[in-house]
Automatic annotation (TrEMBL):
Residues 57-151 form the TonB-dependent receptor plug domain. One of its GO terms (molecular function) is siderophore uptake transmembrane transporter activity. GO terms for biological process: siderophore transmembrane transport. This is TonB-dependent receptor. It comes from Pseudoalteromonas rubra. One of its GO terms (cellular component) is cell outer membrane.
Length: 702
């Protein structure tokens, strides 16, 4: 029996749209309407660009929207359920940690895919101009994906040959060059691009002699594809990213009594290299497979020091080296018009080396420790295996079900575990304009072999964390141009790995050496929330999208529930774009969310038994009982494409935090004084996220 579709017409092509949770998969009119592989059964799926005609955000829309450094990772916080700080391109999905998202590029997993890792991973290593499609899941993803608990970010590089095959671009942050072409009567195609950030040159022109900040970074991406036969094609991919970062800063602080000098030094050299090949095979009309063979290398060298006469003197040296060899295969089999199977396996050999050293002396301590030394050298290697099967079938014209089962095993450095992960989803389409989906499953995340917390003294892998997802989603297309969605979710987490945080600032440059570092060891955790999303194409020139999210992310520690440090109880996000008849486009983003929780400190006067005087005894507060101020930001971008003779010129102007809101990010400093009555007074200075930042860019395509 045929599936239920919404039908639109684009030019002369009629397409039938299968609505998902603000993710719309396309089935062309000449395709069988019962093709189950085109149906997304689970909720919480978003398509930000697509090889099809409909999407949550098209590639052209992404290019016209404001996002710092033209980084697609920086655009992710515009989605419901995603939280992030201004200083980082990394993000949190539905209350999970930032390392709980699986990032794939053309099927290859990317490990810590960021530039400027010494400085909170400010940008990603993925060039947005190379992105042809991206599917994002914030929960309930199918058995195809494993070893991550919160989300999947699956990126595909460009696949269509554009009108203009070469491009040069420059912006406030970086410069790039790209080229595409074909060979052998269009049987083969190639793509290459290179970027170089030049923040170091900009900052060198404005810095004074007391500070030096030189973040140098670059990346290269290349892809070659070739049709071996009518049924097989082979592609080779290469991604390389490199960073050389230096911070040497001296600044003045005030403790309420006197001024003093603080010195910070951070340097880092980072490189990531990936090489992989993918064989696409169409064995027959109903059976296909993809085979991926890859090698990845990540090298991270970080050193630094800090001299603050009132708090800490520290020095550290941190070196990591990582290799991964992978073989992966995925199969798709359309058994019948009402039955569709997916299965696959993955095998990896991993090797990681750690060499870490830290020494710190504390003037202020919260745990009675005045001196700390940490030295770790170890090598961990071993294997990771995974396999899955997913069975999707149409029960009747209104109902589609999907059952999946995944098996994973890890065996490295004395750590051997195996997990079975059942997953189930049910889709109900009562009318052509409505869909209801319910999905549930178990998701496991082993401690990554590259993520051992040696900086905090950990020398053994913890084990495997577990999450149970339940997601209920309802979507209604009130008209061909307006749709809305409501979604409720619950995540229960157990077997959690302890982690370490800073009580005053999540984004410290040398976090592990600070006096406010403390251990978080929950017994369990839960995240629950409701998301409302709206999308309206008012006219061909004017579109808007909006979302409201309520969420509650908490850890259970010793029988009490504490909010997670990135918990956003309320969040509102609004995007809009208008295109003028002159060709200029103006786009805006409005962000609002509740302030993040913070721990902070308290002090009390105690008598010094050695001299009979009084001193301030400082201690950390109970975890995350303070709250920063509400966050609000407006970003704007204007954008235009100028057609030229055999080429085109794109220009944009952008302002981030247009109204220059002072959004609190952290606690910069806490000082104490005693008034005339002998009462202890506390002064807490809050730090802030990024101020107003203007930017611009030009791209010439020819």
């Amino acid at each position: 029996m045929p599936a239920k579709y919404l039908t639109q017409t684009s030019g002369s092509l009629s397409v039938m749209l299968i609505c998902t949770a603000l993710n719309t998969t396309v089935a062309h009119a000449n395709a069988s309407p019962s093709d189950l592989e085109r149906i997304t059964v689970t909720g919480s799926q978003y398509t930000l660009a697509s090889r099809h005609n409909t999407h949550f955000l098209s590639k052209e829309r992404i290019e016209s929207m404001p996002h710092i450094a033209d980084d697609i990772f920086r655009l992710m916080p515009a989605l419901p359920g995603v939280a992030a700080g201004d200083y980082s391109a990394n993000f949190f999905v539905r209350g999970g940690h930032s390392d709980e998202v699986l990032v794939l590029l053309d099927g290859q997993q990317l490990y810590r895919p960021f530039h400027m890792k010494s400085f909170n991973s400010a940008f990603s290593i993925v060039d947005t101009d190379n992105v042809g499609a991206m599917d994002f899941s914030s929960g309930g993803f199918t058995a195809r994906y494993g070893n991550k608990m919160s989300g999947v970010m699956a990126i595909e590089s460009l696949y269509d040959m554009p009108q203009y095959k070469h491009s040069l671009g420059v912006s406030f942050i970086n410069a790039r060059a790209g080229s595409q072409g074909t060979f052998d009567d269009d049987k083969g195609s190639w793509l290459v691009s290179v970027r170089r950030g030049y923040l170091d040159l900009v900052l060198d022109a404005v810095e004074d002699e007391s500070n030096k900040f030189e973040p140098i970074y670059a990346d290269l991406f290349a892809k070659v594809s070739y049709e071996l036969t009518d049924t097989q094609s082979l592609s080779g991919h290469f991604l390389y990213a490199w960073d050389d970062e230096i911070l040497d800063d001296t600044f003045t602080e005030w403790d309420g009594v006197r001024e003093y000098q603080v010195q910070e030094k951070v340097s880092g050299e980072y490189s990531s290299a990936y090489a992989w090949a993918v064989l696409h095979s169409e064995w027959r009309d109903s059976l296909s497979s993809q085979t991926l063979l890859s090698v990845a290398r990540v090298e991270e060298d970080r050193s630094g020091g800090q001299y603050d006469p009132t708090e800490v003197w520290l020095t550290l040296d941190d070196n990591k080296f990582f290799y991964a060899y992978s073989l992966k295969q995925d199969w798709q089999w359309r058994v019948s018009d009402s039955h569709y199977l997916e299965s696959g396996f993955e095998a990896k050999y991993l090797d990681a080396e750690y060499d870490y050293w830290l020494e710190a002396w504390y003037q202020v301590n919260y745990d009675g420790e005045d001196y700390r030394q940490q030295k770790t050298q170890l090598t961990a290697s071993g294997n990771v295996f995974g396999a899955y099967i997913s069975d999707r079938w149409r029960l009747n014209p209104d109902w589609v079900a999907e059952l999946g089962l995944r098996w994973d095993q890890q065996d490295y450095y004395g750590f051997t575990k195996a997990q079975w992960s059942p997953r189930v989803a049910l889709l109900y389409q009562p009318t052509d304009a409505q869909r209801v989906s319910l999905s549930a499953g178990e998701y496991y995340q082993p401690e990554d072999i590259l993520s051992l917390q040696v900086a905090d003294g950990t020398t053994e892998f913890h084990g495997v964390e577990k999450a149970r997802h339940v997601i209920l989603s309802y979507q209604h297309a009130l008209s061909p141009t307006f749709q809305w969605r409501a979604e409720a979710y619950l995540k229960k987490l157990s077997q959690l790995r302890p982690w370490y945080e800073n009580a005053f600032d999540l984004y410290e440059f040398l976090p592990e050496g600070q006096a406010d570092r403390y251990r978080v060891a929950p017994d369990s955790a839960r995240v629950k929330g409701i998301e409302l999303s709206f999308q309206h194409h008012i006219t061909a020139q004017w579109q808007w999208q909006a979302s409201y999210s309520w969420s509650n992310a908490q850890d259970s520690i010793n029988g009490r529930w504490y909010p997670r440090s990135w918990d956003q109880r309320h969040a509102v996000k609004l995007t809009s774009r208008y295109q003028f008849d002159s060709g200029w486009q103006i786009s805006g983003l409005v962000y609002f969310h509740s302030g993040w929780p913070m721990t902070g400190e308290s002090g009390r006067l105690v008598k010094n038994t050695s001299n009979g005087g009084y001193e301030v005894l400082r201690s950390l507060n109970e975890r995350n009982q303070l709250e920063l101020g509400n966050y609000k930001r407006i970003d704007m971008r204007i954008h235009k494409i100028y057609p030229l003779s055999n080429s085109e010129l794109t220009v944009f102007f952008e302002v981030s935090n247009l109204l220059n809101f002072d959004n609190e990010c952290c606690i910069d400093r806490t000082s104490y004084s005693v008034d005339g009555q002998g009462k202890l007074l506390k002064k807490e200075e809050r730090g802030h996220w990024l101020p107003i930042i203007p930017s611009f860019g030009v791209k010439w395509a020819f």
